[in-house]
Structures
1.
Amino acid sequence: MNVLAILLTACSITWANAFVPAVHHTRRGTCLNQEEFGSNFGGNGMGGGIEEIEFTIYPDGRVVEVVRGVKGASCEKLTENIHKALGSVTYSEKTEEYFEQELVVDNTINIKAGEWDGSSSW
């Protein structure tokens, strides 16, 4: 069982004061997966940054969630299912990364069959 699943299990059992439970949940945790949320580790071979979601669970039941490595409003989409599972968010503060734009680099290589334009005639 991964660390995130353990944290989410703890969250769903203790019902954090930072979230107001919408309904009684029987799920023990929420798994984040590449197909559902996308990932910078995808199969495009480009590598990229690391996307992180950090949860801090306080003794009084509050849960603080910090998203790192995600630019713009994508972080809201990334955590949408987690918030649905835990209940409604009572407080939210946008980080510096929220106001940054994701840098997308498109490298296209065109290969022509035939002679090289700079070839010599010798």
Note: Strands lie at 19-20, 52-57, 63-68, 88-89.
2.
Amino acid sequence: MKIATRHLAGSAIALAALALAVAAALGKWPPTQPLVPLAALWLALLGWGFHAALRRHLQFHDQLAFAQSQLELERRARALAEQTLEQTHTALCRKILQQDQLRDSERNRIARDIHDDLGQHLMALKIELSLMQGSSQGVHPPIHRKIGALIDQLGLTIQSLRRIINDLRPLELEHGLRAAMERHLSEFSRVNGIRHQLDADPEALMGITDHAIDAMLFRILQESLANVARHAEATEVKIALTRRGDLLTLDVRDNGIGMAGHPATHGCGLAGIADRVSAVGGKFVIDSKPGAGTALTLSIPLLRPTAVQSG
């Protein structure tokens, strides 16, 4: 482009020089040729006009190049801002997940310690007092009555302790995971107007004594349904809970509009699910196409790898 502009500028200068040369030679032309001065003037004006047009062209080209450079700078700045925002979003989601996991883990630990330690000691003490009450019956009536009062107070203490344990554990899971899923799905359908189908294998949860698994699956179900309500525009959602050997699988499918773009752009829910499943050595798969709904499938090993347990 620079070479072409230089060439055009040289042509304009040459035309102007030619016009001047013709004008200088006017005195040598015979009077029978009056058009020569006009031709010289025309050539001079043509050179000047060409030069002016060339200047305007160069100015426009410079302005266009400046505008393009500004657009490129803005594009890079926007891309950097979007990347920073996505990284911040991911970090925030992980932080929220870590806080939830720490809170749930600590609450479960406290509940387990209370039940296994303090609860067992109180029950043993109640049994001892009951034996003492039986042996004092008819022998020491005042002591017998006093022991009876102590047993009653101890019974109230044990009941309060059980309420504390239930409060520390998720209230929804008080009657088991399946019952909690059914209640939550019914409320979900009532509030959002989205039909639901639950297919939970009765044998899927048999023999599972780790309450953390129940709590994690229930929280994942909550997050999955919240994502359906916010983004899917679905009319129906299907949930399946199955087990094959030591692998527990939860499948959540909707008939909504599907997802376009990276799943991380749909809030902390999906990122949180992926991190929860990964933390226990499981797998999380998203199958979604625009207009074809979304399927979330997660598989959790009930026998966790040693590396995961120690972590």
Note: The beta strands are 195-200, 236-244, 247-254, 283-288, 294-301.
